[in-house]
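Input sequence (198 aa), recorded before submission:
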Amino acid sequence: MNRQPIYTVGITGASGATYGVRIIQSMLEANHRVHVVISEAGWQVFEQELALDTTDRNLCLQSLFSDYGEGWSYHTLQDFSAPIASGSYKNDGMIIAPCSMGTLSKLAQGTSSNLLERTADVMLKEKRPLIIVPRETPLNEIHLENMAKLSRVGAQVVPAMPGFYQRPETLDDLVDFVVGKVLDQLNVNHHLFKRWGD
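Predicted structure, C-alpha cell format:
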C-alpha cells in the first residue's frame, strides 16, 4: 500500500498569501497530507490582502481548507514538538510561499528560531526538497546572494513570476500558473494551467 505523500507549506509576511493558500488547496485536492505553518506577519497579510478575520486562526484556516478535505494540520510558530521539526519524520518536502526576504535571510544563515525556519533547516540537512517562492521587487545584492546560497545547498528558488503564454483571463489564472510551477517541483499532479504545446 502506497504511503500518502506528506508536505509542509510555510506562509510568511511577503505579499502574496494567496499563493500559499492555493498551494495548500491544490495539494489537498491531490490527496496529500499538508502541515501548515504561518508567520505572524503572514497572518497580517491574510487580513490585509485576503480580507480574512484571523481572530480565531483555526476557524480562519477551516474556512479556507475544509472544502478540500481533512488532510491538513496547523502548527504555531513555537510548536517545536510538531513532527515536522524532526528529520526522523518522513516529510516529503516543504514550500515557503510567499517567502519574505527576512525569512530567506534567516534560512541562508542557518537560523531556526521558529518552527517554519526549523522545518526548512530540516529539509536542507536531510537533502529533501525545499522550494522557496520569493515575492519581492526589486531585489538587492543581499537578496540575490541569499537565494544563490540556498540554491547551492539544494533549495529550489521559484519566484512568483506568472507566465502569459496561456493567455490568462483572471487573477486566479495568474496565481494558478505560479502555483502550478511550484507544484511541478514536487511532481504533484495538477491541472492549473495549460502547458506549452498542449
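Checked by second reader. The longest helix spans residues 171-184.
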